[in-house]
Structure formats: C-alpha cells, structure tokens
Design a protein that fits this description.
The chain is of the alpha/beta class. 44% of the residues lie in helices and 13% in strands. A hairpin with a 2-residue loop joins strand 4 and strand 5.
Length: 436
C-alpha cells in the first residue's frame, strides 16, 4: 500500500513537473464546422507534441474579427494563433503585425498550396498565413431546366449567356427564378459578388492614383446589368438575400442558376437537404471576354501575431492543422468529402477525393481563375479580388453595398447609387490621405 502510494505520488509529481514545462498556446478561431472538427482531432497533434497544450477561443465570425483585430492592433497578446481571412493578411503583414511562416517543416510542402490561394496570403513572396480551407465562386445551375430551355451551359459562360438562360428559365407561375444572386448589403455580402462581377466588366474600385472609379462607364455597365437581370429574372425581395437565403431558394428548386461560393456545392448536391441534388451542374463564373472572370477568392487561414512569445509552438500547430497529413486524418475519420477544400493541389489530384466530390475540378478551376495580385483588367494599386486590401474598405464597402442594395430594391436609380458611391469613396480616400 505504501509502495503504491509512493508510486502514485511520484507519478503525480512527474505530471506536475511536466505540466510546468509544457507550453500553452491560445488559438482564436471561428465557430464553423471545419474548425469545430479540427478541435475534435487535435489529439493527433498533442500526441506528437506532448509539450504543447492547446487553449481554444471559439467565436462567431463577426465577434472573432472584432476581437482579433483589437488584440493585434493594440498588441494585447491574448492569442498565439489567429484565424483570419484573405482580406486581413496583406494589411496586417504590411503593418508588421504578423510573423512570416518560414518554419513550417521540411515535409510541409508549401509549394503544394494552390498558387492563387498562396498569393493572397503572401507579401513580397513570404507566406504570412497558412490556409485551412479556400474557396472561389462559380455557377451552380439546374441541368433539367437548362435542357428544358433548349440550351447547354458552357464550362466558361459569358454574362450574355447567363442573361439569355435566365430569361428562358424564369417561370413565375411555378415559382422558378432564372437566377439568384446576392443583394443583401455588406462588404462581404453583395459587394463580394458585385466587386468580383465588376472585374469581368473591366471596372475597378480605384485607378493607379487611388481615385475612385464609380463615375466610369464600366461600373455603370456592371450595376445596370445586375439590376436589370435581377428585376427580370431574380426572386422577390432579392435586396435582402445573402448566401444563406439564396442557398435555401436553390435547395427548394426556386432558382435556375445561382452564382456564389464554391463551398456551396456540397450543400446543393446533398440529397438530405436539397430537393434538386441530382440535377445540379457547375460552370465557371461568367466573363465578358476581357480576360477576367466574375469570381472571387477567399481563404480562412491560420496566422501568428508578431506579439506572441510562443512562436515556435504556434508554428508547429499551424503546420499540423494545414498539412497534407491533416487532410488524410480527416479523410480517415469522416471521409474524403469532408477534407478541407481549396488549399492544396494534391487534394485535387487525389482520385478518391475526385470521386467523393464531383464538383472538385470546377472548384479548382475557379480558384485558379482568380488572381488577387492582378484582379482587374486595368492596373490598380491594390490587391484582393472581391475586396480592396486597405483598412478603409470594411466601412466603405458596406456603405457602397447599402447604396447598391437600395438600387436593386428600386429605392434609387443606378445613376444616383453610383454618384453617391463615388462621393463616399472620394471622402473616405481623402480622409485616409490616399488622395488630396
């Protein structure tokens, strides 16, 4: 009995000594399914790294953005790993708020990261965030309704074809809208769609000298086409519809086409939730023959704030969570269809993944069609496809989104919305010191 007590005492002392030497890192992340799954699988990491303890702070997306932005700007030091998006990375890296990820390990294979995704997370050739999953946008369409219209969807359609198809597919008597597009105001809602769309029309937010461009014909053509298309072939109340609302409409069979995030493909093709799961086809986002398609680029990524005192441990975790090994781990536990999409070329070369995800090739093609470093037809001083990577964009993008949503709702004309957008952008850029 005494020997057992002594042994337990020694074990307890050993455990306490180990705990004292273990390094604890705090990870701030978003409360989506992929990140929740990652937390459940972290035993794989801690077994390989018993000297590192993980503390999780899991937050809703808007709260996460607010918390991590405040912490990194004030050098609060609450977090050792942050989940951030493609918008934040180039801004924060240029402020020297993030550490470059140059110690991810010999077997990490950073060259396997899809170039378009890596480009949006890099500054001066250095990776400042590792992508956990990525997305672009593309056309999801009803193959049965396309056949009924006597048309065949090209792999790379034009906007004129989308308009032609939408006109023929719209069937108000049976509750079918030819096309469903985002109308809800917000820099990440309607302006994500409209900014990407405007690139394919030759528009840009600013010229090379940061002068706003909403008074130019390319933006007039973009917004007029969008408003006319939605009035003729879009759903009622479209100015209130974002991703979730349009997803529900498509799954209920009320959209002939939907142009939105590639991650939606797994939802619209899921027979448990989609009434049209066996009727969905996919195509690249439309273009106008100018060399740019109307698709965006985004990645939820893991980054390390410059203020951390535990950079080595943090980078080990980032390496594990964004590695090829992690994708294999997810596949072994929950099937290949649940592997984090849109980040690694090797995933899209995997025959098992291709079989589990019939939309895989079009997703990869869509991601590759986006170039965050050259997002527009004409030259611009910024990076970002569906956003402008400057701090002022969040506020300005939402303001412009409200103006354009009002134009869609018929509360103002296209010309008035564009004039007000030009005025708002000019004021913001003057205040920010970009223009005089």
């Amino acid at each position: 009995m005494k020997l057992r007590t002594l042994t337990l005492g020694l074990l307890s002392a050993s455990a306490l000594a180990f705990a004292a030497h273990a390094e604890s890192i705090t990870i701030a992340t978003v409360n989506n399914g992929d990140m929740v799954r990652m937390q459940k699988l972290t035993e794989d990491f801690t077994k390989a790294n018993p000297d590192i303890q993980l503390n999780w702070v899991t937050l809703e997306e808007n709260v996460l953005r607010e918390r991590v932005t405040t912490d990194i700007a004030t050098k609060g030091g609450q977090y050792d790993v942050m989940t951030i998006g493609t918008y934040e990375v180039p801004i924060w890296a240029k402020q020297s708020w993030l550490l470059p990820l140059d110690k991810l390990g010999d077997d990490y294979d950073a060259k396997d990261i899809i170039p378009a995704i890596a480009g949006g997370l890099s500054v001066d050739g250095k990776l400042y965030a590792a992508p956990f999953y990525g997305e672009s946008s593309f056309v999801m369409y009803r193959k049965d309704l396309m056949d009924k219209a006597g048309l065949k969807m090209p792999d790379a359609p034009t906007w004129d074809f989308i308009k032609q198809a939408a006109d023929k597919m719209t069937d108000r008597a049976n509750g079918v809208n030819g096309v469903c597009l985002r109308g809800k105001a917000g820099w990440g809602e309607n302006m994500a769609f409209l900014t990407a769309m405007s690139n394919s029309f030759g528009a840009r937010w600013f010229d090379e000298n940061w002068k706003p461009q909403f008074d130019q014909p390319e933006w007039k053509n973009t917004l007029q086409f969008y408003v006319d298309l939605m009035k003729a072939d879009g759903p009622e109340g479209a100015s209130s519809n974002g991703f979730n609302e349009n997803l529900a409409l498509f799954q209920q069979g009320k959209c002939g086409m939907w142009i939105d995030a590639t991650v939606a493909a797994s939802f619209v093709s899921d027979p448990k939730n989609s009434t049209v799961a066996d009727k969905v086809g996919y195509a690249l986002a439309p273009d106008n023959g100018l060399g740019k398609r109307g698709n965006w680029l985004w990645a939820w990524s893991l980054a390390i704030p410059a203020g951390t005192q535990k950079a080595d441990a943090a980078e080990k975790f980032v390496s594990w969570a964004t590695s090829k090994h992690y994708a294999d781990l997810v596949a072994s536990k929950e099937g290949w269809a649940n592997a984090p999409p849109g980040t690694r070329s090797s995933l899209y070369a995997n025959a098992e993944y291709q079989k589990a995800a019939p939309f895989a090739k079009m997703t990869l093609d869509s991601i590759n069609a986006a170039d965050p470093t050259h997002p527009t037809v004409k030259p611009v001083p910024y990076v970002g496809v569906q956003f402008v990577a400057i701090p002022e964009f969040q506020g300005l993008g939402t303001t412009v989104g409200q103006l354009f949503s009002a134009a869609l709702a018929g509360q103002s004309s296209v010309d008035d919305a564009l004039k007000q957008a030009q005025d708002a952008a000019t004021a913001a850029m003057t205040e920010g010191g970009y223009i005089k």
